[in-house]
Amino acid sequence: MKKYSVFDCSMIELDRHHSDRKGNLTVVENGMTIPFDVKRVYYLYDVPGGEDRGSHAHKELEQLIIAASGSFTVILDDGNCKRSFFLNRPYHGLYVRPGLWRDLVDFSSGAVAMVLANDYYNKEDYIRNYDGFIEFRQAIDK
Ligand code: TYD
């Protein structure tokens, strides 16, 4: 298993089809726009002010996180470094590699966090305990 750091994660600028005075449209296509094929889409919304989401890592899942509406901050943590990404554009996607802890914080009112994922929901893929996450990271070295 490859051990990714927060510096392996980046913002991907998605294309934007602009129609004058009629709004914009963004497309995501498997294998073309993003580095993985999408098997699952889910979205978080109605997050009350001051509440955080996330607080877990995925062992294998790859994700693209998009602020489909409003804004929020994603804090990624690889056990050594943390990186903060402010998402506030529906045409920006944060590519999150496997094996990283994430916290989603500072949701604006009306924020919608849309997540594209390369696999189906599997609760065995989650690490929800931070100490367990650090042990998981150390085990990748071995
Ligand atoms: P969870 O991943 O804990 O949300 P967050 O990390 O953003 O706080 O998911 C919340 C609940 O939704 C949990 O009971 C599991 C369920 N869930 C699914 O059933 N399928 C899914 O694809 C996801 C992402 C969550």
Q: Figure out the total of helices.
A: 1
SSE order in H/E notation? EEEEEEEEEEEEH
Per DSSP, what share of the residues sits in E-state strands of 2 or more residues?
35-45%
Strand order of the largest sheet: 1-9-6-11-4
Distance between the termini: 10 Å
Textual characterization of the structure:
- It contains one helix and twelve strands.
- The longest helix has 12 residues, at 130-141.
- 8% of the residues lie in helices and 41% in strands.
- The chain starts with 9 loop residues before the first strand and ends with a helix.
- The protein has a five-stranded antiparallel β-sheet with strand order 1-9-6-11-4, with no helix packed on it.
- Strand 7 (72-77) and strand 8 form a beta hairpin.
- By secondary structure, it is mostly beta strands.
- It is globular, with a radius of gyration of 15 Å.
- It has one helix spanning 130-141, and strands spanning 10-13, 17-19, 23-25, 40-44, 53-58, 63-69, 72-77, 82-87, 92-96, 101-105, 112-117, 126-127.
- The model has no long low-confidence stretch (mean pLDDT 96).
- Thymidine-5'-diphosphate is lined by residues 40, 42, 44, 53-54, 56, 121.
